[in-house]
């Protein structure tokens, strides 16, 4: 079959099964064909009349069947773009979200140098690796409780030539680590959001934040504020509805009122990131 007919057929299947718009379905069909054929998208767009080899067509149909079952595109292709870089992802890692690019935008406002930057719950490593690419003149540490996520993060670090990042399997912040900057995109979904079809395929270890969604942040704040050296900057991502509550909790831990706590909106205009900055550093 020629690639145009194959793509049209696939786009119809995607629209019907996933209720996608014509544009999204067509785009996803091209991404799947590009992956199955190992040709870039430009080649596929510019050769609609070319007959697709049978073995590629079979492979494409297999990928399409998985997508129709609502397996995320990133898990099928095994990669996801984040802040202009490609990251390997799999069923052990969260698929990095565009909303989390706020962490990098926020770091860009201070252009960190000679600091220790920690990423707590690193998943695919997207936050810490992007930071290391942009501001290499710092020390980088990332933790996760999932050995498989850490394996993927280390693989991504190698692919992006970021050999200096220390990846540690640990529950939140290890006792010997005293970061200047903390980034934490920890699991923050409450129980009622766990059934949302958009997150069904992702690991619950990366999503579930306890009864009110903020259990892990409470524990992290307790760890941070029990140290002699507290960070100059703490960033935490959460659900838009929970961000004001997270700020109140953070202010309770910041007993000496050393931090200014600010909320930023993501690209969709939703409150998404809470940042605490020490006045004196
Ligand atoms: C929401 S995902 C975020 C992944 C990545 N930071 C990102 O932004 O794409 C949360 C991550 O935290 C990890 N995690 C869950 N509980 C943890 C804990 N107690 N200590 C450290 N990491 C944890 C999960 O395995 C998962 O990789």
CATH topology of the largest domain: Rossmann fold
Give a quick account of the main beta sheet: strands, pairing sense, barrel closure: 7 strands, mixed
Helix content: 25-40%
Quickly give the CATH architecture of the largest domain: 3-Layer(aba) Sandwich
Discrete helix count: 10
Give the overall shape.
Answer: elongated
**Name of the CATH superfamily of the largest domain:** Vaccinia Virus protein VP39
Q: What is the succession of H and E elements?
A: HHHHHEEHEHEHEEHEHEE
Brief description of this entry?
The protein is an alpha/beta fold. The protein is built from 10 helices and 9 strands.
Describe the structure.
The protein has 281 residues and is α/β, with parallel strands linked by helices. It folds into two domains: 3-70, Helicase, Ruva Protein, domain 3 (Orthogonal Bundle), CATH 1.10.8; 90-278, 3-Layer(aba) Sandwich (Rossmann fold). It contains ten helices and nine strands. It has helices at residues 3-18, 22-37, 41-46, 54-68, 73-77, 101-110, 126-134, 147-159, 215-225, 243-253; strands at 79-82, 85-88, 116-120, 139-144, 166-169, 181-184, 233-237, 259-265, 271-278. Strands 5-4-3-6-7-9-8 form a seven-stranded mixed beta sheet, with helices on both faces. The chain has a two-stranded antiparallel sheet with strand order 1-2. A hairpin with a 5-residue loop joins strand 8 (259-265) and strand 9. Helix 1 packs parallel to helix 4. The protein is elongated, with a radius of gyration of 21 Å. The N and C termini lie far apart (64 Å). The mean pLDDT is 95. The protein binds S-adenosylmethionine. S-adenosylmethionine (SAM) binds next to helix 7 and strand 4.
């Amino acid at each position: 079959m020629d690639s145009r007919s194959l793509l049209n057929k696939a786009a119809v299947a995607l629209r019907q099964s996933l209720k996608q718009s014509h544009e999204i379905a067509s785009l996803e069909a091209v991404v799947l064909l590009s992956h199955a054929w190992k040709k870039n998208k430009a080649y596929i767009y510019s050769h609609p009349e070319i007959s697709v080899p049978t073995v590629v067509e079979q492979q494409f149909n297999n990928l399409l069947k998985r997508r129709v079952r609502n397996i995320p595109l990133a898990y099928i292709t095994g990669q996801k773009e984040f802040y202009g870089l490609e990251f390997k992802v799999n069923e052990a890692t969260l698929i990095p979200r565009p909303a989390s690019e706020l962490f990098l935008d926020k770091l860009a406002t201070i252009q960190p140098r000679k600091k220790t930057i920690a990423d707590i719950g690193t998943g695919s490593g997207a936050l810490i690796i992007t930071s290391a690419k942009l501001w290499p003149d710092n020390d980088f540490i990332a933790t996760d409780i999932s050995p498989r996520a850490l394996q993927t993060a280390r693989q991504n670090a190698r692919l992006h030539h970021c050999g200096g990042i220390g990846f540690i399997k640990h529950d939140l912040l290890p006792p010997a680590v005293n970061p200047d900057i903390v980034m934490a995109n920890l699991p923050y979904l409450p129980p009622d959001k766990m059934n949302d079809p958009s997150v069904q395929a992702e690991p619950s270890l990366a999503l579930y934040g306890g009864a009110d969604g903020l259990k892990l942040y409470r524990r992290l704040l307790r760890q941070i504020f029990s140290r002699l050296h507290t960070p100059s900057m703490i960033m935490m991502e959460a659900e838009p509805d929970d961000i004001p509550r997270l700020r109140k909790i953070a202010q309770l831990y910041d007993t000496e009122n050393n931090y200014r706590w600010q909320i930023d909106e993501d690209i969709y205009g939703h409150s998404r990131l809470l940042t605490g900055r020490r006045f004196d550093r």
